[in-house]
Design brief:
Blueprint (H helix, E strand, L loop, with lengths): L6 H8 L5 E2 L9 H11 L11 H9 L14 H10 L6 H20 L2 H11 L6 E2 L1 H9 L8 H9 L14 H17 L3 H7 L3
Parallel strand pairs: 1-2
Helix pairs in contact: 2-8, 2-9, 4-5, 4-6, 8-9
Length: about 200
């Protein structure tokens, strides 16, 4: 089962951005989408226990804390915990969220496991203004199901994730164009890793 609604989705409705979503099972998501998410957002997803500690250290030591691979120091597990159980926001709300985020991240790692985390992540994350989840994004941008996404299509959708309201998939923004190319190269680099191959295959 998927969450009936998240705080982020509720906020989208209240703000007038709408809410388009269509939850699908792990097996109804193409391997390309799973591989693109890992390549673009968290290449150590199959290895870590919820946190990329070297990246966290780097982000704390840097004023910008930016990394090419996705949200600075934020793993897929952390993003899933935040999107399902907590709230968005910067400033003081971000720091208030950190404690609960740590707890929920560890809990889903222990209870759900990697495939379930990736399944929920790809179903609940915002992938465009008011568009939540890979199925809704696939329908909106390519008029097809998530199961049929090509490598280029999957990389393009994942490329918008740093700021899906700003970095548009269609029309394809300059950022998405650049980032999608980078993600495609990373997909080729990691696709033969045995742990990632096992993780991106059907349940």
């Amino acid at each position: 089962m998927m969450p009936p609604i998240t705080l982020t989705q509720l906020g989208s409705l209240i703000s007038g951005n709408g809410l388009k979503r269509d939850y699908v099972s792990y097996d109804a998501i193409s391997r390309n989408a799973k591989l693109a998410a890992i390549a673009g957002e968290d290449q150590l997803f199959a290895e870590h226990g919820g946190f990329d500690w070297p990246a966290l250290k780097q982000s704390l030591e840097s004023d910008k804390g930016k990394r090419a691979r996705g949200s600075a120091a934020s793993t897929i597990s952390q993003q899933t915990a935040k999107n399902v159980f907590l709230w968005q926001g910067a400033g003081i709300t971000k720091y208030l969220r950190k404690g609960p985020e740590f707890v929920y991240t560890k809990l889903i790692e222990w209870i759900w496991g990697k495939k379930r985390i990736l399944e929920v992540y790809l179903n609940v994350i915002e992938m465009g203004k008011g568009i939540y989840g890979i199925q809704a994004a696939s329908n909106r941008y390519y008029q097809e199901d998530a199961a049929n996404l090509s490598r280029n299509e999957a990389a393009s959708i994942i490329a918008c994730l740093p700021n899906p309201k700003k970095y548009t998939v269609q029309p394809r923004s300059k950022f998405v164009n650049f980032k999608a190319g980078w993600i495609l190269r990373q997909m080729r680099n990691i696709q033969d890793n045995p742990k990632i191959k096992a993780l991106t295959e059907a349940k």
